[in-house]
Amino acid sequence: MNAPLQNAWLEAGSDTALADANAANFVSLEAAQAEQKAKALKIERETHKLEKRLCRQVGQAISDFNMIEEGDRIMVCMSGGKDSYGMLDILLKMKARAPVDFELIAVNLDQKQPGFPADILPAYLAKVGIPFHIETQDTYSIVKDKIPEGKTMCSLCSRLRRGILYKVARELKCNKLALGHHRDDMLQTFFLNMFFGGKLKGMPPKLLSDNGEFMVIRPLAHVAEADLSRWAEHRQFPIIPCTLCGSQENLQRKQIGNMIREWQKKFPGRIENMFAALQNVVPSHLMDTQLHDFKNLKITGMPSEDGDKAFDEESFEAPNVMASLQGVQVVQL
């Protein structure tokens, strides 16, 4: 075979290989694009399910505890953290479809922490289009002055903040204050009181203020912290870190939170069971004489649903709390 003909065959083979490579690359690109599209659709689907779940759970809390009524003027307390952003976001969605008419006004307490970005919340709230008020009070200096280095600041900071917020609520003619505590906060508070306070006491979804003037509500009572984290990431809230409580690594609350998360990791569903227990209290099977009259308990000769089956083996049949999680898949947003 002469040289030109041989070169022609070699070039033809090379062209075929190149065409095959191009075709393979095209197929690979198409597959990658299809995979990316499928992933985007999956994230969109899961985000939609997350939004529906958040709205349903907030609606359930409002209904269960009669949190919001016709004509309420609600002060939504904004810290700049994921929880308060999520609470405001969902309350605004609920307001648009609520069966009663009520007002929302967002309030932030600027405690004059060093480096606090005072422009972020006003800019966000103005963009959302909700009435808001920024109260500026230098509680940071007071807390730093009164609390020794290394000690937790939460108690004093909380008392100062509460008094200021009540004053602001009065000035704004609000009758209710909405706080962004969620289900995990409520469980942590329960265990904090049990382990360190010797009380079976949690964080109520609704209560009177200590001066009896306002109603305090927690619309996120049924909401998991993990869902709020995912929602904050999806909505890209401009989160403001707290340099007071957020920087204290040895807080008892953080230790309790780590304990509960470890339990959930080892025994999935435990958080749901514990939260269900807060709503299924049997005073006759505890030891508080203020809640149950043990001293005057008499034999009646009649069957009782609450009667102790003293000689039976204990059976722990938890409520079907996992049913609500069926079909829920966590995806990275």
Supply database-style keywords.
single chain, 333 residues, alpha/beta, Rossmann fold, six-stranded mixed beta sheet, 49% helix, globular, disordered C terminus
Structure characterization notes:
The chain is an alpha/beta fold and 333 residues long. The chain has a domain of 228 residues: 3-Layer(aba) Sandwich (Rossmann fold). Helices cover 49% and strands 8% of the residues. The protein has 9 helices and 6 strands; from the N terminus they run H-E-H-E-H-E-H-H-E-H-E-E-H-H-H. A 6-stranded mixed beta sheet has the order 3-2-1-4-6-5, with helices on both faces. The chain is globular. The C terminus is likely disordered.
Overall outline: globular
For the report, how would you describe the main beta sheet? 6 strands, mixed
Strand order of the largest sheet: 3-2-1-4-6-5
Give the helix/strand class: alpha/beta
Distance between the termini: 62 Å
> How large is the count of helical segments?
9
- Strand content range: 5-15%
Secondary structure: helix percent:
40-55%
Briefly characterize the structure:
The chain is of the alpha/beta class. The chain has 9 helices and 6 strands. It has a domain at 50-277: Rossmann fold, CATH 3.40.50.620.
